[in-house]
Structures are given as C-alpha cells and as structure tokens.
Amino acid sequence: MPQPFLERLRQGPLLCDGAMGTQLYARGSEALTHGRCFDELVLTEPALVQSIHRDYIGAGAQIIETNTFGANRFKLAPYGLEDRAREINRRGAQLAREAREVAGQPVFVAGAVGPSGQPQTPLLGLRDAERLAELRAAFRAQIGALMEGGADLVILETFSNLLELEQAVLAAHDVGDLPVVAQVTFTEDGQTLAGQGPARVARALAEAGVDVLGANCGVGPAGTFDAVEEMRAAILALGRDPDVDGPFLSAQPNAGLPTRIEQRFIYVSSPAYFADYARRFARGGVRLIGGCCGTTPRHVAAMREALGELLPEAERRGFAVAGDGRAASAVGGGVVTAVRERTVVASDETGAPVAAAAAPPTRLASALAAGRFAVSVELDPPKGLNPTKILAGAEQLREMGVEFINIADSPMARVRMSCLALARLLRDALDIEPIVHFTTRDRNLMAIQSDLLGAHALGIRNILALTGDPLHAGTYPNLTGVWDVDSVGLIRILRGMNAGQDAAGAPLGADSAFHIGAALNLNMEDAAIDEARERARRKLADGDGRAEERGEPLTETDLELARLRRKLEAGAQYVMTQPIYDIEPLERFYERFGAVEVPVVLGMIPLHSFKHAEYLHNEVPGITIPEAVRLRLRDAGDRAREAGIELAGEVIRAARERGLIQGCYLMPSYGRYDLVGELARELVG
C-alpha cells in the first residue's frame, strides 16, 4: 500500500523538528536534575513533553519525533525501567499524536529509536549471533510499542555502528511496514566511531532496504552536508536515484559544537545559519531536513521560512511565513479561514516560543473599541430545515447597513436550528458577522467545549454567554436541563480558551480569540424576595454581602448587580441588556453599579401594537414596559407600529447621547425586518 510519508517525500523536502533532550534539560525538568531518565518523562511529565512537540509544530515542523530515543530495555535497565519499555514507547507516540491533534496540523509522528547503549567492541568484528539476536529483539519490542502508540514512521538515529543499525532495520521490518529512516553519526573526520565512512554506510543501508538514509548529530551543518553529499554519490553509483526511487536522503545536524559555560553546554549555530543550510540541503537533494542537539523551535522556524519556496504549492498556501520571520498558517482554498496556527514571535533562552501573534479582533470588537456605534439585529433560527427565509431577511438587513446579526439559541426552550449552523450560513452567504447566543442549558461541560472549539474553527467568535430559558416553558417541558455551569462558568471557560486551555487546564495548542459577552437585565425590582427564594439564590450573589451586612433582605437588583460583577470578573468583554422602554432603568443601573469598564449594548424590541406591549409586559420574563408607554401605543391606534419605532429610536438616541451605551441590538417581532432595518439605517448613519 502507498505510504503517505514516502509519497510526500517524493514531492519535495519535509522539515523535521529539532532537539528533544536539550530542550527538556533547558526547560528545567526537576527530574533531570536528579539524574532521572529522559524517556520516563513521557509518563511523569507528559505536559512538558507535549509542550515541546507543540512548539515545534507551531514553528513549522512537518515531522515530530517521539521522546523515546533511549527507550530500549538495555538503556532503561540502569533506571529500573526495563520492564516498562513497552509502556514508555507507546505513551511517547501517543503524546506526539495528541500534540498533533491539539495543534491541528497534518504533521507526521516519527518513532525515535536510538542505539542500545551496549558496549560495541564485541560487535565490531565478531558476529555473535546471540548478541545480535538480543539487540534485534530489544529493537523489535521498542518499535512494536511505537507502532501501537500510532507512529507514522520510524527514525533510527545517532547510530555509530553499522552492524547494530542493521539489526534495528531488520527489527523494524520484522514488526511491520512503517517507513524506516536510518541515520548515522559521523565525527569531524567524516567517519563513524566504528571507522565506517559515509559511502560504505549508504551502500549498506540501501541494501538493507531502508526508505531514507542520512546523518544526524555529531557535527554541525557543514560536516553533515559533506557526509550526505558522499552518501548521495554512493547511491547514484548503485544506479538508484535518491530523488525518485530512494532511498531518500536526510540530514539533522547539531547546532554546531557545544561549548561549556559554567554547568551548561551552549550550542553556537544560529537559526539564520541553519536557514542557509536548509536551503543548501534541499537544493542538494536532501528530502528530510531537521536539527539535532542544541536546535530549538527558533531554528525550525528559520528553516521553515528558508524552505518556503521549495515546498509543494499546497503547503506554501497552507503555511506562509511573514516578513518578520514569524510562521503563520492559512488554510488553502479558503475552506476554513478561521484556523490559526501558533506563530513564533519571540523565544526564551530555550528557544521555546513565549508569545504568539494574536488573531485579529472581530469586527464587533473593533467597532466597540474604536467608539463606533455598533448596531445589530437579532434573528431566531428557523424551526424547520429550510433557512431560506432567515437568509433573505438577513440579506435585506445587510442592504440597509446592518453589519452584525444576533442569533438566538433555541429561545424560549423551543427547538430550532443550531445557532452555530445558522451563524456559519450567514458568514458564507452574506459575510455578515454573527453574535451567537450560547446557552449552558442543553449542553454538559464536554459538549460546551466541543461546540466552542468547532465555532472557533468556523470563524464564529462573538459569543453571548447565557444560562438559557427554563425547559418547562418550551417544546419539551419534561426534559431535564444540564446546567453543569451557568453563564458565569461559561464566561470562565471562554476566557480559559482565550488563554489556550480547556476547562480542565489541558492545552488547546493555541489561544482562542473569542469576544465574550454577558447579559444584563435592566428591569430589576427593588422589592425584597421571599426568604425561601433568597436562600435558593443567595449563592448567585457570590460574595456580594452588602445587603446581608446591613441585615436587610436581598432584592432582585442586588442579585442582578452581583451577578454582573461576577461576569465581569470572569472575563466578559461586553454587555448586552434586556430591552427597556424609557431611559430611567439604565440611569438607575449606573447609579447603583457605578462605571462599567466594558462596552454596553442596549437591547430593544420595537413595539408594534398596544396588545404587543401588554403581552411583553405581563407574560415575558425580564421585560417591563411602563404604563405611560403602553398607553402611548393604545392612543396611537392605527399608527401604533410607527409609534413603537419612534419610541425605540428615542430611547436609543437618548442613551447614546448621554454616553450610556456603545451600541444596540434590535429584535424584530413576527419577522418584520423592514421596520427594524429602517431604524438600524438611521442609527448606523
């Protein structure tokens, strides 16, 4: 069967990652300072190992190697870990695969296999069948475990004895059909420690049937380049083309020779130097290019930039490099334009990225930050399969100047099309930016995070965090709500994702860029709530004990203000209010709450009749319409619809003129997009 790794190598060079061991040491694993086993860290410090994998992927590596270089039973024995070889190798491959999944990039996972660590003297001239069988069995066990963990290929690296390397190759063939990369370490005089030159090594490995052969470790780019050139000549002399039929060539040099400074070894070759040699390697026919000891994500990022023009066209589109040397992805063909790869903008002394280029803010966030009055219209998703009517209404609103659409999440607990699906339809069809109402009522903690990850990947980043209407009011009153978290908890989850972590603290591979909104009910009552209700809801105040300290019962206002404080502390970046029909509730809110450090967007349902006003006032939770307003609609008679639009405009303009709001969102009744559209046109203008 075709091997994806080999098929990709035929198309052009592939970039491997850099050092693992020196990165682990540089990042200060406490275990290593006590002489512990590097390979055991896949079990004891998996987050550290995964962070290195992710940093290399973020820098542009297309192959990442598992942290299993010394995980054969011989090298594990001094640590008492020989019986855990299978567990360590399998987990090492799994960690690399998980890092790949988190990063969301199509990289290959290479199972790293190093020498046995056994004394080599008996193997130099004496073919001891028993010794060779032991070596082969140890390598077979290690490679088998790497395959179990999901490795895509095997890299046999840093071997200095050809006889031992041949046993590792045979073991790989015994276990399965994964592609095999075999790399030898040469000294500065161009020989292995066993006295074998590049040409001899190349011929032997080609005859052994490896897919890729080359050199790694030992020396820097210059010495590695010379060794690989000799290997290429030897393959050509065999009548084989290393650019077409293979074996392909590989090169993973050290970052020069190390120098000891105090208690540390410092490698001197710079990322720019590696970038120059990456081009030279690629133009010399080397297909697998990477780094070994001393190389960092900075070296890999520099090599990725240098190799840009030599990559297949699809990969050049999929991973561009900015002029300042930062790596950045852009999914080809516009399929998922919101996907964003971690980008290397700076690094600490270990070479690990310490900052990432931020995704551009949403258009809503930009408008609010710039002080431009933002106007949105809320649409309910359809109750059936066909979104045509909703899309037509949105198109009508766009033509009237509306930039944003609020999309409710099955409002009133009645079944409707997914708000996320409709949001994507609006983006694709009309390029209107959605503001999605996202509730915790129907989703457990896992589903919440899953949907949010999907929303972000689809470019849906304005989220209004809501708990959701109670189910007893909806289509299926006997269902049980989930409510693992409420709206405050949802805001915390979103803020955590913006910091690159899920709710359990596991990394996401990059920081999300959600614009997080919170709801506010301005129609609060100052009457005291009854004692039983107070006990049931007191937790919502969460530390706002002012009323308790006075010995007074809590009021609806106390609870709503305390809840807003919690939302802002949790990370809300803007506030959207329930509708009001005079400005007094908004002024009263500011008097009680004080300054709000984030933009406030006022909600408004334009009234279209006296009956409509009576219904909202008496039957819809969270909406209070003063008697004077209801009478105004009654007295307007046939002009009630026009009076309702006038009233809405008056309240919004008054709040705007006094600097109390930075935007508004209009909620049309009965699909009358034309009426709210005309008001939106006036407000935008």
Topology readout:
Layout lengths: L3 H8 L2 E2 L5 H6 L3 H4 L7 H4 L1 H14 L3 E3 L7 H4 L8 H19 L4 E6 L7 H5 L3 H21 L3 E7 L2 H14 L4 E5 L13 H11 L3 E5 L4 H17 L10 E5 L5 E4 L2 E4 L3 H13 L2 E4 L7 H10 L6 H6 E3 L5 E3 L16 E2 L5 E3 L7 H7 L4 E6 L8 H12 L4 E4 L11 H12 L2 E7 L5 H13 L4 E5 L20 H12 L16 E6 L10 H11 L4 H4 L6 H15 L3 E4 L6 H10 L6 E5 L5 H10 L7 H10 L3 H18 L5 E4 L6 H12 L1
Helix pairs in contact: 5-7, 5-14, 7-9, 9-10, 10-11, 11-12, 13-14, 17-18, 17-28, 20-23, 21-23, 25-26, 26-27
Please summarize what this structure is.
This protein is α/β, with parallel strands linked by helices.
Describe this structure in words.
With 685 residues, the protein is an alpha/beta fold. The protein folds into two domains: 10-316, Homocysteine-binding-like domain (TIM Barrel, Alpha-Beta Barrel); 366-527 and 556-608 and 656-684, TIM Barrel (Alpha-Beta Barrel). Strands 1-10-7-6-5-4-3-2 form an eight-stranded parallel beta sheet. Strands 15-16-17-18-19-20-21-22 form an eight-stranded parallel β-barrel, surrounded by seven helices. Helix 18 links the parallel strand 16 and strand 17. Helix 9 crosses helix 10 and helix 13 (271-283) packs across helix 14 (297-306). It is elongated. 49% of the residues are buried. Residues 320-346 and 531-551 have low confidence and may be disordered.
